[in-house]
Amino acid sequence: MRGLRKSKPGDPEWIKPVRELRYRLGLNQEELGRRLHYSAMAISRWERGEQEPTDRGYIELGNLAGDPDCWYFWGRAGLNNENLMQVTPVLRQRLQKSRFADFDIVAAGSGPEKPSGERLQLVAIPVLKLMAASLGERGGHPSSVLSGPVESMIAAPKEWCPNPSTTSCLRVLGNSMSPLISDGYVVAVDSSQTDHTHLDGKIVVAWHKDNGLTVSRFRRFDHTEILEPENHAYESVTLSSKRRWKVLARVLWWVGRAP
């Protein structure tokens, strides 16, 4: 791998941090792109200053970089202390008490983790401008699950996000999953978990060309697969080649404001 090229006057400020991160990790542009779910050409454009990383790109760069470099990348995407506090009440209380001095930032895809004692491990997860509708409503387009525009971010414990680079948050529209998941809740989804044999009884996000993205519980009975609502006022949907439903992600967890 060739040496790191010196920055030139007038270069956009993001060029140097992106290059330095790639060289520190010992990756070429194709390898870095694979880690971030971007093409080698996209990484090349970032490093030449022709195109700024997207918000999603900055989030993943931060997750990959780890503390303290993550804060530059997350800052470019809009992450601040207010976003960081959008986690569980127990974790929020602990973070406030420690003033952020007692947690680790996990570098996604960086290999085996070292024991960290009582230190907290967090990852930044993008909240996309995208609706995952419950049955009976119409949701967004499937291509947005990984690459959609970012509305904001939240920080979550590492154990909640086994695959940070394929995890996003979507908002729920409708009440077919209530009282478990209500209208307006935010669900975290992992688009790497789509194997039907491992999803029986799990809540998933599925897509149909006429219905868009839908959140529901996935069930398998012998050779039959269905999407089952939590609210029994709604009917289940049987999946078949004619109906052309596709499971895109598993729901990992959800959050919502108290009434």
Question: What labels describe this entry?
Answer:
259 residues, alpha+beta, 434 Repressor (Amino-terminal Domain), Umud Fragment, subunit A, 10-stranded mixed β-sheet, elongated
Summarize the structure.
The protein has 259 residues and is of the alpha+beta class. It has helices at residues 15-25, 29-36, 40-48, 55-65, 70-77, 81-84, 89-98, 144-147; strands spanning 103-105, 120-133, 150-157, 167-173, 186-190, 203-208, 212-221, 224-228, 237-239, 246-255.
Describe how the helices and strands are arranged.
Elements (H helix, E strand, L loop, with lengths): L14 H11 L3 H8 L3 H9 L6 H11 L4 H8 L3 H4 L4 H10 L4 E3 L14 E14 L10 H4 L2 E8 L9 E7 L12 E5 L12 E6 L3 E10 L2 E5 L8 E3 L6 E10 L4
Helix pairs in contact: 2-3, 4-5
Largest sheet: 10 strands, mixed
Name given to the CATH homologous superfamily of the largest domain = Umud Fragment, subunit A
Q: CATH topology of the largest domain, which one?
A: Umud Fragment, subunit A
Helix and strand sequence:
HHHHHHHEEHEEEEEEEE
Number of domains: 2
Report the radius of gyration as a whole number of Å. Answer: 20 Å
Q: Which regions are unreliable across 5 or more consecutive residues at pLDDT < 50?
A: 85-103, 105-116
Shape: elongated
State the helix count.
8
Query: Class of the largest domain in CATH?
Result: Mainly Beta
